[in-house]
Design a protein that fits this description.
Blueprint: H1 2-21, H2 25-29, H3 31-52, H4 56-67, H5 80-109, H6 112-128, E1 133-136, H7 140-151, E2 156-160, H8 163-171, E3 177-181, H9 187-192, E4 200-203, H10 208-221, E5 226-230, H11 237-243, E6 247-249, H12 251-264, H13 269-278, E7 285-291, H14 303-306, H15 308-312, E8 315-321, E9 324-328, E10 341-347, H16 348-357
Parallel strand pairs: 1-2, 1-4, 2-3, 4-5, 5-6
Antiparallel strand pairs: 7-10, 8-9, 8-10
Amino acid sequence: MNIIYAATKTLLIFTMRLQSKLNHLVLRELLVPLLIILFILIIGFWGFILIEGLSPLKSLYMLVITFATIGYGDIVPISDTGKVFTICIVISGFTAGLYSIGKISAFFAEGELSNLLKQRKMNKLLDTMKGHYIVCGYGKTGKRVLEDLMRKGYEVVVIESNPERNEKLREIFDQKFIHLDGDGTNDDVLIQAGIKRAKILISVLSTDAENLFVTLSAKDLNKDIKVITRIEETKSEGKFKKAGADFIVSPIDIATDRIISIATTSTDFFSFVDFAGAKEELKEYKFGLVEIKSGSDLINKTYREANIPQRTNLVVIGFYSSMSELQVNPKADNVIQFGDKLLVFGNEQQIENLKFIASHKG
């Protein structure tokens, strides 16, 4: 019995060391069936020595022909105990063999190998990603956010815990899009998503509590990351600001603004936004906010003198100053000051051109 105990202990130590060294995903997946077979072989080897008094070589020979179920020729179990033990070895070996064959077949036939290799590829990509976007939640809002970010060529990591949604995400896997099957409120999942190297986190989970928790966790793990979050209850806005959210989006406020816009004006700004987004030729255009920085030749010039539309082909919608809220449709005589933020409409390159002008002398 001491020998069997020692063999079992040796097997456990071997298993622990082997598992700590196995980095290859395929071997790690097949480790369980292989260890079961190895365990039966060890028990059988020592069992024939102890029960039948066979030599190590004869015990090994006995084990091989028993485990392979090819019958006996010159060596057969003598004692009743040996016969019972042999029956157990045959049944155990047959069962372990069927299990191993099934496991290996499923591993290759049912796509487990493909999934493991894909997971390994995703992990390698995650390790190299920097300045990427993290989207928590793949509901209706998350889906639209993801599609828009991917269309613009950004690297994105999506975190989703719903199995059905994850299945859809697996179908559209791409090198610039990685998804993690996990809970966005879990710090370990955020770290796996590269939160410490990410540029922006967008949280559009189903409840304010979840979005608030993600905001707190994100700012705790990376104080420089920009957090955009959705809220359902406007009374929660103060909590999100305290948690460190940089931008808070309320569907209720957006709907209210649209209703007021329709009710009080002859034109609806939001309808124009929808129209611009729907027209294929206008999809490359967007709104941008450009800050006037120190050294810009636009400082202390009027909008007439700045001549922004002619220099950049942008439309200036309005501006924010340090002393006031958004001023729509600035007058030609309004003076541009340091720190003003111009709200403009145009394509990406035109906005970048204005950003350059806003921070350099002409």
